[in-house]
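REQUEST FORM: STRUCTURE PREDICTION
Request ID: SP-0412
Submitted by: Lab K.M.
Chain count: 1
Length (residues): 347
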Amino acid sequence: MIRRSNILLASLLVAQVMLLALLAVTSGGAESRAIEPLVGGISASETQRMTIAASPDDAVTFARGAAGWALPDADDFPVDGDKADEILDKLLALDTRQLVASNPVNFARLEVKDDDYRQRIELSGEDVSAVIYLGASGGADTVYARRAGENQVYLGRGLNSWELSTQIATWVDANYVSIAQADVRQLRVRNAQGDFTLLRDDESWTYTDLREGELLEDTKLPGILRNAASIRLVEPLGLSALDSYGFAEPTVVVEVQYRQLVEADAADENEAPSSADNIGDDETAEPQYSEATLTLTFGAALEGGDIVLKSSQSDYFVAVRETTYQVFAELSRDDLVKLPESDRGGE
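STATUS: Completed
RESULT:
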């Protein structure tokens, strides 16, 4: 009987332990796993500024104004508002669904320390603010995330750290100059070597300073034309011509003359045709073009090697790659002239 009693008591004890464990899971345990936003107390509409930092010296700030998102450090150069809103929504959608760590000793490994992180995101509005540290990836479309001042690190879903680049060109329309190469009719380049003008006649080009017996050396022409018609900015600099930009004595000036297609006004298209208009109805009207001139002024080199550029068709000074500048700065007469084959001797 004693042996059977011991067995019965042991069975009851095991049952009690299992019951207590079940109660812990269904009560206090479930409460501790409640899913909440990682960044509570701030909404997308309340967020007026967003700063993305890869380090204290590498950061970009967006501010929301009447015209949408812009770069306050570059005199409100416009930002791609759809992209900024999308990233903000993804940040605010991060939640506490999956806890990864709660001990600060793990912060360095996950790259979410206050002074060692992949990205530090600061969101702020009139009466609200929040700071998030984003770390390494925990898999596809995931990132480790921690709110400043808290020890809990969560696995954020639906976001990649590379989406939060500090390269400004990824957030703006980087096409500072965009002209169809076929529409360029004349190029004039003024640099330290001289003044060079190239003219297009139908599909061929000529150099206006050719001497008797000389021919156009056109091997560099495609690069010159391509860089004059299409220039991408690295970052906008603002509206002011700072002394350090070197525009008192610009290093290179490029003039681009090109044609623009004239589109008929909608009002004109809706007008009833006259009797004269009916003549040759089956013939397609020839496209009409207007002439335009674009002046590109290159200034000084910035720290890091980029070059300051100002287009006559933009209010903003921008930084561009040195390679774009070199195409025009290094151009010389020898690059544009060659002799006929019969005059080259043993060459």
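NOTES: The longest helix spans residues 2-32.
Reviewed by: T.R.
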